[in-house]
C-alpha cells in the first residue's frame, strides 16, 4: 500500500463524513439561530428551550435522511472491502 492510496482513502473518508454530518449540522444551526432570535425578541432565557427544538430537528433529519445516510456509509464500506485485495497485493 502506497502513501497515495492512504491519502486517497483518508480523503474519501473525510468526504463521506462531511456528507453525513452536513444535514444534521445545518438543521441544528438553523433551529439554534431561530430559537436564539426568538429568545432575544421575547427575553425568555430558558436553557431547555434551545435543546428540545434542536433534538426534534435532528430526529426529523434522521427520519427523513437516515436511509440515504446509511446507504452512503454502506457503499463506502463496501468500496473499502473491495479495495483490500488490491491494497494487500501492492
Structure keywords:
92% helix; mainly alpha; 90 residues; 2 helices
Number of helices: 2
Q: Please give the alpha-carbon distance between the first and last residues.
A: 5 Å
Mean of residue pLDDT? 92
From the alpha-carbon coordinates, what is the Rg to the nearest angstrom? 19 Å
* Biggest β-sheet description: none
Task: Please state the structural category.
Answer: mainly alpha
Flag low-confidence runs.
Answer: none
- The overall strand count is 0
**Beta-sheet strand percentage?**
under 5%
Helix-strand sequence = HH
Structural domain count: 1
Percentage of residues assigned to helices: over 70%
Q: Quick one: overall form?
A: elongated
Task: Report on this structure.
With 90 residues, the chain is mostly helical. The protein has one domain. 92% of the residues lie in helices and 0% in strands. It contains 2 helices and no strands. It has helices at residues 3-42, 47-89. Helix 1 (3-42) packs antiparallel against helix 2. The longest helix has 43 residues, at 47-89. The model has no long low-confidence stretch (mean pLDDT 92).
Short characterization:
By secondary structure, this protein is an all-alpha fold. Helices cover 92% and strands 0% of the residues.
Q: SSE layout and pairings?
A:
Elements: H1 3-42, H2 47-89
Helix pairs in contact: 1-2
Amino acid at each position: 500500500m502506497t502513501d497515495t492510496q492512504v491519502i486517497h482513502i483518508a480523503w474519501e473518508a473525510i468526504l463521506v463524513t462531511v456528507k453525513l454530518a452536513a444535514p444534521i449540522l445545518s438543521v441544528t444551526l438553523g433551529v439554534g439561530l431561530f430559537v436564539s432570535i426568538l429568545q432575544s425578541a421575547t427575553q425568555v432565557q430558558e436553557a431547555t428551550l434551545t435543546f428540545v427544538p434542536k433534538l426534534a430537528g435532528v430526529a426529523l433529519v434522521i427520519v427523513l435522511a437516515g436511509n440515504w445516510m446509511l446507504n452512503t456509509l454502506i457503499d463506502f464500506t463496501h468500496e473499502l472491502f473491495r479495495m483490500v485485495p488490491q491494497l494487500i497485493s501492492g
